[in-house]
From TrEMBL:
InterPro entries: DAP_DH_C, NAD(P)-bd_dom_sf
Keyword rRNA processing: no
Taxonomic lineage: Bacteria, Bacillati, Actinomycetota, Actinomycetes, Propionibacteriales
Stretch forming the signal peptide: none
Organism: Nocardioides piscis
Alphabetical keyword list: Kinase, Transferase
Gene Ontology MF terms: kinase activity
Name of the molecule in the record: Diacylglycerol kinase
Domain 2,4-diaminopentanoate dehydrogenase C-terminal: 148-352
Length: 361
């Protein structure tokens, strides 16, 4: 599209506030509205809510219909979806039916079609896109760019591929998301606590779409179901994190894998190594530098490994993790607006870059 895309941001949380800042800096985008869930934020200038210390002339609102009435080109949807997956899917479908394109950080189950959702869900999304002439793209950094686009680009250098392994290795002690940390990962809870993420099939629902997207990009058909492995470790002493206090003996570190096999042989593996203190479980994989990294390992001919690290200009890797998640969405807006209606995956998009963002002053 030639003119600036008119954009609405959905929420001002840990990702949404950075999306607002990113849109403000983007020459091809115009921020026209922001949705908030809190009455306390209703009517406030979104520049203040985003921590920009200046007004942007756009007031936050809890009025969903008023924002859709603006007829934006795209919604940058950054609302928390981990604890309301199916309600969030209904929101996204409604946006599509209203004729509004969407880029979203979740639910991550929509990253790529997979058996985790029944066929009728995928059919509803496609029907909604066709009805409104709108597209939906779900992505971020993980699940997202670090383990789909980056990994597939690396495989373009391969002569033979035996296994593709995509990894997040991170210290979550400064990651502020109490619901995710305690209720979903189970940090600070007993090792045998029946928290959501470790129930059979949940990992395949959350990260399985990454494995299926890599399989689609590589042209292989995986065995079903995917294989899940989980290893939870206790804290050796009491730990304080920004989200949850972790008592000695309760869950403090976890390593999991979601494995796609072909004829029983692992070919595509997603692995997370998550600590709440950098000294935990030293025998597990560690980042090459800093507090965390995303790692892609391609075994075959040749053997290849890429470690991707990031950190904020004035913050740690968890701050920049929110920024890169937001910017992957913000920078993809124009491509998604121009895409065919329906679900758009990373395999469907052209090369997305930081066009227009180079500092010239």
């Amino acid at each position: 599209m030639n003119s600036a895309a008119r954009v609405v941001v959905w929420s001002t949380g840990t990702v949404g506030r950075h999306a607002i800042a990113g849109i403000d800096r983007h020459p091809g985008l115009e921020l026209v509205g922001v949705w908030v869930s809190s009455a306390d934020k209703d009517g406030q200038d979104v520049g203040r809510l985003a921590g920009l210390d200046r007004d942007l002339g756009v007031l936050a609102t809890t009025d969903r219909d008023a924002l859709l009435a603006l007829e934006p080109d795209c919604i940058v949807h950054c609302a928390m979806t981990d604890d309301r997956v199916f309600e969030a899917i209904e929101d996204l479908i409604a946006f599509l039916e209203a004729g509004v394109n969407v880029v979203s950080s979740g639910p991550v189950i929509l990253l790529h079609p997979s058996p985790a959702l029944p066929t009728e869900f995928w059919e509803r999304i496609e029907a909604a896109g066709a009805k409104g002439g709108a597209s939906l793209h779900v992505n971020g950094i993980d699940p997202g760019w670090a383990n789909d686009v980056l990994a597939l680009q690396l495989t373009s250098l391969s002569q033979r591929i035996d296994e593709v392994r995509v990894m997040e290795i991170a210290d979550y002690s400064t990651y502020y998301q109490p619901v995710v940390m305690r209720d979903i990962f189970g940090f600070g809870q007993p090792l045998d606590a029946e928290v959501m993420l470790w129930q059979p099939g949940v990992l395949s629902m959350a990260w399985g779409p990454v494995v299926h997207q890599l399989a689609a990009g590589l042209g292989v058909t995986l065995d079903e179901p995917l294989v899940e492995k989980v290893d939870r470790r206790p804290a050796e002493s009491d730990i304080e994190t920004v989200s949850v206090d972790i008592a000695a003996g309760t869950t403090a570190a976890v390593r999991f894998e979601v494995i796609g096999t072909v004829d029983g042989v692992p070919r595509i593996v997603l692995e997370h190594v998550t600590r709440t203190h950098p000294d935990q479980v030293p025998e597990w994989p560690r980042p090459t530098q800093g507090d965390g990294c995303y790692r892609v390992v391609v075994s075959g001919e040749p053997m290849m490994q890429v470690d991707f690290t990031h950190h904020g200009e004035h913050g740690d890797h968890n701050v920049s993790g929110m920024i890169v998640t937001a910017q992957r969405l913000v920078n993809a807006v124009t491509a998604v607006v121009d895409a065919e209606p329906g679900l758009v995956t990373a395999l469907d998009l052209p090369l997305v870059t930081g066009r227009g963002l180079v500092s010239l002053a």
